[in-house]
Amino acid sequence: MAATARTRIRLLLPAAMVALAVSATTAAASTSSAAPPAHSVTSPGHRAAAKNPKAMLDAWLRLWNGDYTQAPGIISPDFTVHAALLDGGDGSSIRGADGLVAWISQTRAAFPDLRFSLQTGPLIAGHRASVRWTATGTYAGGFPGAKAQPGTTVTFTGTDTLRIKDGRFVEYWLNSDTLQLLTQLHAL
Known about the structure:
Elements: H1 3-18, H2 44-49, H3 53-64, H4 71-74, E1 75-82, H5 96-110, E2 115-118, E3 123-125, E4 128-138, E5 153-165, E6 168-176, H6 178-184
Helix pairs in contact: 1-5
């Protein structure tokens, strides 16, 4: 399998984690998908979110739904990912806000209109937060081994668990229903 194909597979799973999504409000899910320039954080709201786990999760959901300006305000430079990726990787090469944004961008390349929404409200305990999400999007093509036609709508679910330290997310565990996604893409 070519390195490019492995990279695409690796990035698709993160989309699922993306969903972690976040807040108890559904208004965040309707946020515009237009992605402002990455890392142009100027709003004091980003600093306020760092003190409120629910607000951080809301920003996490917006980030996965394409608003990359959320990343610098909620993602630690020490941020790491723990996920079983299709290429056999464990996600440890995805580091910091830039690494996460690159991963999300690559994921969204295969599903440009991908939208994450919460199935249940967030669970917050101490320095950890967890959410159950559903992701729905239109397949644009390019997934290695997929026989589904571009334009196929896919829906898959997952759970994101995040650890918070010093007002930012520092670790991310993704558990997504990869079988559900691969079945819809006719990649099995």
